[in-house]
């Protein structure tokens, strides 16, 4: 039997035995005797009586193992022309001191701390400092607008917020403090303090409750790592669901550490001392798992990159960083490579750098279109692995197991089920689908360690969102199929979530904003395929009787509203006026029908939503399906 097959089958036949063995690869303060049990909610729980500290595991443990002088983190910021290195010892000391700052502000175990920061080392230091004292961090992506931040403040009820004076987007300086102040004004929950890091590019105006980051550090005493139960929450990360309110995905300490350590071994094939780079943002799950926790827990050197793959300064930025830091394994979103390819289709920039250290490339966050996949394979001539996962799972559900048994990949496929994830394909009426038959992609319970145990403050929402669609299975929200050879294909979301430039967004949330416009009677926002961003939102609008407005004006208003309420990352730029929206007899808008109609373009067509032909195509498709369109955007 192949080692992959054997390992996968063992993980499914005897989950407790399998994960007991994997749990030995991390260092516990108290080894768990219970591996898999049930909590009061009848939820599966991993390592219930184990004790550990994730920040200790990520830093102090390696110092104890003699790796104190190894580089733990490289901050590479082309937007500020900075490269800074931290050894494990230096990073541990910074984290311990900042943990002391939090202690000094009366942050205790279990308290929530929101981190709203750009991609600077202090963001990772803040996360690890929270973990060190058992505070629960909730990182909010810097590209979210104040209203989004306010929603998260009200849900997580933090005692302290950590932020910086600004972020840098290409050449623009984005001041964070006015956004934070606006969020605090909107939020009902009141925080005790904001700790603000002043960056040289912008000076934040400090208020009464604000504390200067550097001043606070001067008087802080380093704090030790506290023992935490495996089931204590490490963080909350909000992600888009089908409604306007994001879901607070909770991550525990023990299962998370065991799963991430295993993933570095089996999925990514990396070990202590390797240089691992995930070019994402700490605001997303990729940043949590594969910029901060997994590489450090494994004793790798991780890279924290502040910039964009193109125009900072050019399309060679990825290659320059791989060459400069001798990156072994690289992970990013396909959309980032589509941007690179667009600027430098012949890879002339690549030729300027020695990227021979690079052993393999992983892509995730959205489906990799075959054209980009093939371009990457031809350009790099190393294994390119599309792997699939979600904020909820925290680590890959499917991939090519590079540390276990690398196998041939198939373009368009997310490859194989990762051990621990018993992925099945079910029809709407819960019937298992055979090879090649599309259906709901689900995971038979128990989920492996590391996956969400609940939604913060709303266990009912957890049950409703994930557990009730198909009893006994976790509902991923993705549709797809498994072929005869066991390759899994993820074909897209079956709900109202879209994926725009690797950013997960809710069309329901956009609809709530668009519907608030005084001219709009009803609306639907659907995701339409886009060559660069993967998907982009398009609004279909039904106007109120008697409203006579130019689509250009209306569209301008709506774009501004969505940008203000969600943020620029929504990429909401297009709207079309229709004279009817398809509905069920009970009046429910058939979004899925419209999505299917709009989604009739092959991904490889060289089109973006800026091409007028795309809107023509959507219009024609809608008209052909009796959804009459009477206007459209320019
Ligand atoms: N703060 C403020 N604004 C931000 C921001 C941030 N952190 N991130 C993005 N924005 C802004 C952009 O500047 C842009 O503004 P504009 O409309 O004024 O031009 C807008 O949001 C849209 O951003 P995006 O669609 O991300 O395009 P981009 O050109 O800024 O970046 C990529 C392109 C490919 C680099 C980026 O989309 C990316 O890294 N995506 C991958 C995300 C990811 O890692 N997902 C996790 C899975 S691996
Ligand atoms: P997020 O929670 O932001 O990581 O987004 C998770 C969603 O992104 C998944 O449910 C999928 O819809 C999509 N996704 C992530 N990785 C892939 C992949 N490799 N192939 C297809 N879709 C993906």
Report on the structure:
Strand 1 and strand 2 form a beta hairpin. The strands form ten sheets. The protein has a seven-stranded mixed β-sheet, sandwiched between helices. A five-stranded parallel β-sheet has the order 7-6-8-11-12, with helices on both faces. A four-stranded antiparallel β-sheet has the order 23-24-25-26. It has 634 residues and is α/β, with parallel strands linked by helices. The termini are far apart. The radius of gyration is 24 Å and the shape is globular. It has two domains: 394 residues, 3-Layer(aba) Sandwich (Rossmann fold), CATH 3.40.50; 125 residues, ANL, C-terminal domain (GMP Synthetase, Chain A, domain 3, 2-Layer Sandwich). The C terminus is likely disordered. The protein is 31% helix and 24% strand. Coenzyme A binds next to strand 9 and helix 13. The site of adenosine monophosphate has 20 residues, from strand 25 and strand 26.
